[in-house]
Write a structure and sequence with these properties.
Strand content: under 5%
Number of strands: 0
Order of helices and strands: HHHHHHHHHHHHHHHHH
Structural class: mainly alpha
Number of helices: 17
Distance between the termini: 36 Å
Shape: globular
Length: about 425
Amino acid sequence: MDPADAGPRDALDTSDGRPSRDARPALRPLPPVWLMALALVAVAANLRVAITSVPPLLDTISADLGLSHAAAGALTTLPVLCMGLFAPVASRIAHRLGAVAAVLAAAAAILAGTASRFAGGNVVVLYAGTFLAGVGIALAGTLLPRLVKTFFPPARAGLVTGLYMFAMMFGAALSSAVSVPLADRLGSWQASLGSWSVLALVGVLAWAPFTHRANPHHTRGEEGPGRLPWGHPTAWLVAGYLALQSWSFYSAVTWLAPTYVELGWTRTSAGYLAAVFSGSQIVSGLMGPVLSDRVADMRRLLLPAALLGIVGTLGIHLAPLASPWLWALVTGLGQGAAFSLALVLLVRYARTPEASGRLTGMAFLVSYSIASVGPLAMGLVRDVTGGLSPVWLILAVIGAVQALVVLRLRPDLDRVD
């Protein structure tokens, strides 16, 4: 081998001329940055669709399969739980395969889980497919912040984060808006939910060439996957913030449309309202990370985001029919900014890409495991109280606690190693 072609780990053992145990193949040239960004966006577009395509059809699914409100809420709870339980596994898989190859496996799991919903009339298949899609969402969602820190310059980390947030929320808004019309046109809710496998296939096809060209060692941790930062105070603050935000988001995305169906709206109109909620997150989800590149103290962005969420949820609780479109818009703006800025925190409070992966794994494990209870718990509130109005008061209180946590996220906090 020409020494000029050797990768940084292609050292030779000069004592006997044989490659050392740490020798690795030369790193292949990476694709252009814009192509990597497009591939990342194509995968990110699938990170909410398996969840947000369900709520507009929730009453139909419940009636067809005989599910309680709590059991129906589990269709969104299950992927969120997977996002918590499997987030720590992502770092280990990335260490073994490389983060790029691990994301391809995750995209394939989302494709398989979504496609299985064509047979969703079988309860076991419906929940098993939802579980599989949730595992894929967990792996991809955990690794994308790490890949942003690995492949993109720090000055553009906020922009790239905003782009994949844009894709994620656009997919969520689109699925919320057209799930009911798709069910009417295709003849069943199963076909509507399963049809989103086309978008998942696009993600797989877009990412596969990147996987071929990007050597796994570009993203493999040299020192091993490492332990999650359980003893780090900053990691717990970030995890706590993300837990409160995620509880509010997944509860809202699950029960917004059913709340207005309960108030007499048609399923189609309620789906459009849910699309406004998700669509407004496109704007704030893109702007939040972009603005973060120019802001040293993240509290200047995180606090307004929390306040928007509080105003919107209180509006739905106190006067749901007075300005429903405004409440959905305001709540969505707050949630989109809050979540996208949380992703920035996972990058900003880590010293290295590997540390970002470990911080993300811990934060997702803690936050999504807690937040997965949200849709189910809010469904129980509906079953006990006979209405969904109390749900929105609870979410407003959770938003207030979230704002208190934000006040502790100082810019001088110790970063995770």
